[in-house]
Amino acid sequence: MASSEGLAGIVVGDSGISTVGQGLGLSYRGHSIEELSSYCSFEQVAYLLLEGSLPTGEQLQDFTKKMNKEANNIEGLKPVLREMPCDLDPMDAIHAIVMLASSSLPECSEFSNQKAVALRILAVLTPCLLFWYHRAKSGLETDVRVQDGESIAAQFLRLLKLKPASKEEIRALDVCLILYAEHEFNASTFAARVCASTLSDAYSCVAAAIGTLKGRLHGGANEASSAYLQKLKSISDADKFLDENFKNKHLIMGFGHRVYKKGDPRHPIVREVSAALSRGPQGMPALQKLGEHIERRMVEEKKIPPNLDFFASILFTQLRIPRDLATPVFVLS
User: Fold this and answer.
1) Residues with catalytic annotation?
2) pTM above the 0.85 mark?
3) Most C-beta atoms within 10 A of its C-beta, which of 214, 233, 310, 325?
4) Cα angle 271, 277, 279; round to 5
5) Bridge partners of 152?
6) What would the pLDDT profile of 182-197 be if each residue is shown by its tens digit?
7) Rounded to whole angstroms, how far apart are CA atoms 210 and 215?
């Protein structure tokens, strides 16, 4: 039997949730990512993915209210969060948080409360992760209560920085969450589906996905992109880096995609959002220009376009999101 690396070309199932590649671009339940990233919040997209249609104003308000309530219902989880080692990889911490959340709302054996479970996971990851993260990094216990009507993007940035973020920063992260929210049968989704096929509970399925997402060739790609970008201080540094890697035929993380051979449709969206952020008072225009220079050389000389992760890593740097939290943000999405 012929093997297929990475399951390339192997049909493992059908999805009614998204379309990926083959000239179709990327859409979630019939809505293009261009439309969703322009006009929707991440909460609206989360509702769309869970319920099958975009919410009305009343439905969105109710959905956000329920999430905020769940996010503030973590007191019973804090004793265990306090005992989690400070030197854990944040991906291991968020993996543990998912399983910990199951203690307060187990999935019913007949799977009748799956949407409530999904809402619970979606709601508690941000406050639980940042409660642990601040203790791990500074030894301090911070207030991670969520405000009424506060979006996940606003929560994450406020709880991370311990001060409110600007509207521009919140919107930038919101768009990133939308772009990372769904991608059909990627590796982590496939792992979750395999786990689900055994009739395991939803928490275990999500945990299996997180373990897969931790891999450097999947969710870890944005961290890998940030790692080399943060070492480059000038266009000259970038040219030396590229020349050396071209010569040695090394992979440049953040470029190329197994499906999108002619370019990731998410890339121009995140690139523009990052560019807009770079023009703001807290922006990093030099980093943005450096990224655009690397992109130009990769496309012109190697004919390899960027994927979502490349400018997402630049955007995260401009938002002052620590590199070790880049992949956990992918998990939140």
Assistant:
1) 218, 257, 309
2) yes
3) 310
4) 110
5) none
6) 877 778 888 998 999 9
7) 9
What order of strands is seen across the sheet that includes strand 31-32? 18-20, 26-28, 31-32
Residue with tokens 């709302």: 105
pLDDT digits (tens, 9 = 90+) for 229-253: 999 999 999 999 999 999 999 989 8
Asked if the model's pLDDT at residue 11 lies above 80, the reply is: no
How far from the centroid of its chain's Cα atoms is residue 310's Cα? 13
How far apart (Å, rounded) are the C-alpha atoms in residues 144 and 156?
10
pLDDT of 314: 95
> Tokens for 129?
């992760």
Question: What residue type is assigned to position 198 of the chain?
Answer: T
> Average pLDDT of 19-25?
67
Q: What Å distances lie between residue 295 and 12, 175, 248, 271, CA to CA?
A: 33, 21, 19, 10
SS3 31: strand
Phi, psi of 332 (to 5 degrees): -55, -40
Q: CA triplet 17, 260, 28: central angle to 5 degrees?
A: 20
pLDDT at residue number 201: 92
**Angstrom distance (rounded) from CA 257 to CA 249:** 17
